[in-house]
Amino acid sequence: MAEEKRSLFPALRLVLIAGIAGALAGAVAVYVTSRPAGNNGAVAPAASVSEADVAACAAKADRAASIAASARGDVAAMLAADPPQSLKALAFNDPEGKPMTLADRAGKTVLLNLWATWCFPCREEMPALDALQRDAGGDAFEVIAVNVDTGDDAKPKKFLADTGIDTLGYYRDNTLSLFNDLKKRGLALGLPVTLLIDAEGCLLAHMNGPAHWSGDDAKALVGAATAKP
């Protein structure tokens, strides 16, 4: 049964991606360049990615393959980074609305997820991401779910309140810059998109499409990613 589930999930994921990508195109079409008050609009300072950072991440190909091999069942769609690359310069706003980059989470393994209120699969998986943060979050690991709705904070905050999402921090980017950055890197085809990033800011694994993040399979993946090599 587990093997059957693993084989069917990628096909389902491709169907979802096709629809989600169209929705994203619509969101881009109606995007207005105004920057309302709230947890939006700020531009994070660029994080420095040195040649040493690039080389250090590229050297983790075996580590990435090992982590991806531990992605089974509910999270079987996670793919090994090929090659691993430094993502420490990815920029968005923190829960206080201040600009930050992933470099600000150095020393912590991060499951970075991009979501929007208009993305149905995103809405479906948010409670599971919230549960994963509640159960596994701490000094060594954090789920960073970044909302990418354009406009102000009203809709995403209402969704989180109505759904009872109270463990995840409210990370935000209403400019689509973060999504477009990942798209240029070949990592984002639509929403949701999820990246597993190690404590040095190196991408280890990634997936497009939803997953059941609160189950044992997801927790085993987090355990593998946070364990010392």
Characterize the structure shown:
41% of the residues are buried. The protein is 40% helix and 15% strand. The longest helix is centred in the first third of the chain and has 28 residues, at 2-29. It contains 7 helices and 8 strands. β5 (141-147), α5 and β6 (171-172) form a beta-alpha-beta unit. It is α/β, with parallel strands linked by helices and 229 residues long.
Q: What is this structure, in a nutshell?
A:
The chain is of the alpha/beta class and 229 residues long.
Features:
6-stranded mixed β-sheet, 7 helices, globular, single chain, 229 residues, disordered N terminus, 40% helix
Show the helix and strand layout.
Blueprint: H1 2-29, H2 51-58, H3 61-69, E1 79-80, E2 91-93, E3 99-101, E4 109-115, H4 120-136, E5 141-147, H5 154-163, E6 171-172, H6 177-184, E7 193-197, E8 203-208, H7 216-226
Parallel strand pairs: 4-5, 5-6
Antiparallel strand pairs: 1-8, 2-3, 4-7, 7-8
Strands, total number:
8
The biggest sheet, with number of strands, parallel, antiparallel or mixed sense and barrel status, is: 6 strands, mixed
| Element pattern in H and E | HHHEEEEHEHEHEEH
Shape, per Cα inertia axes: globular
Strand portion, in percent? 15-25%
- Main β-sheet, spatial strand arrangement: 1-8-7-4-5-6
Q: What is the tally of helical segments?
A: 7
* Overall pLDDT score: 86
Distance between the termini: 31 Å
